[in-house]
Design a protein that fits this description.
The chain has one domain. The chain is 66% helix and 3% strand. The protein is globular and about 50 Å long. It starts with a helix and ends in an 11-residue tail after the last helix.
Length: 292
């Protein structure tokens, strides 16, 4: 109602119109920040395999012509995680009771469902779109504060993004590897997809600025809490942390595009051999691929 009242008065109040425009810009930035936090963390997560073994598997064709610049940006992103996100997530895990953390996690997962549904449909994944829609309807009964759909035996939640949609549409080669400031591993295709997702996310378009910022912050903290050990262990054990993240990003992204199906053409070692799938460590959702 508040948004409707404001919109009705814009035409007769030029100053209010300017204020609304600035507000829309802030909300757009907040939505961008939400996805940026998730993507940056996704680039840091992995399992316990040695860095040299993982990197050696996937880096036969690194396609990283901007490696010097990428490494500098990667260092900035890693410092931001170490100085800001990690300390906050440690405090959060120690102070907030686990049941409350689970409620927050369920709500964050619930809010990703509309965007996932859109990309399911764009990819022609009708069964998965049906699963997503059903989960949304069921979990709406508890306002997204729990995963009632799981209690009803529904399939695990999955995630889709427009970068994956572009790959399904035929843009299989994402282009040169990129590390984006405060976002993380990407490539040209996925960077374009990321931008589309920011501006088409139905939830992001209805939340207020404060709500969008709170969502972005909690998404990052929740992911760091769930995957903190794996992230820290990867950094400690890596001979070349940058190369390892680059390699895992490529493996993870290929798996996302195949919806987790095995790669029949290029089988090889991966995090999954340890019993911990890459997707389970790099997702905003429990199952869980996030945008790369």
């Amino acid at each position: 109602m508040i948004a409707a009242d404001l919109a009705a008065g814009v035409s007769s109040h030029p100053r209010l119109s300017d204020s609304m425009a600035r507000g829309r810009g802030i909300r757009a930035f907040a939505r961008f920040a939400l996805l940026a936090v998730a993507v940056a963390l996704a680039g840091c997560a992995s399992g316990p395999r040695g860095a040299d073994q993982v990197a050696g598997y996937a880096d036969e064709d690194v396609n990283d012509p901007l490696e010097g610049l990428n490494r500098q940006i990667f260092a900035i992103n890693s410092a931001a995680d170490a100085l800001i996100l990690r300390p906050i997530s440690v405090l959060y895990s120690e102070v907030v009771f686990t049941p409350v953390q689970n409620i927050v996690r369920s709500l964050l997962n619930y809010l990703t469902l509309p965007l996932t549904f859109i990309n399911d449909m764009l990819q022609g994944e009708w069964d998965r779109a049906g699963d997503t829609a059903t989960r949304f309807v069921i979990n709406t009964m508890v306002l997204g504060l729990g995963d009632l759909a799981a209690d009803f035996g529904r399939p695990e939640q999955h995630s889709e993004d427009f970068g994956q949609t572009l790959a399904v549409w035929g843009i299989r080669d994402g282009g040169p590897y990129l590390v984006l400031p405060f976002i993380g591993p990407s490539n040209i295709r996925d960077a374009v997809g990321f931008g589309v997702d920011v501006y088409t996310d139905p939830v992001g378009n209805v939340l207020t600025t404060g709500q969008s910022l709170a969502r972005a912050g909690m998404a990052g903290v929740d992911f760091r809490v769930r995957n903190g050990h794996e992230i820290d262990e990867l950094e400690r054990s890596s001979i070349d942390y940058y190369a390892t993240v680059r390699s895992l990003y490529r493996q993870k992204r290929a798996s996302d595009i195949r919806n987790g199906a095995p790669d029949k053409l290029t089988p090889g070692p991966g995090i999954g051999d340890t019993g911990q799938p890459v997707a389970s460590l790099t997702a905003h959702n429990p199952e869980a691929p996030l945008t790369y």
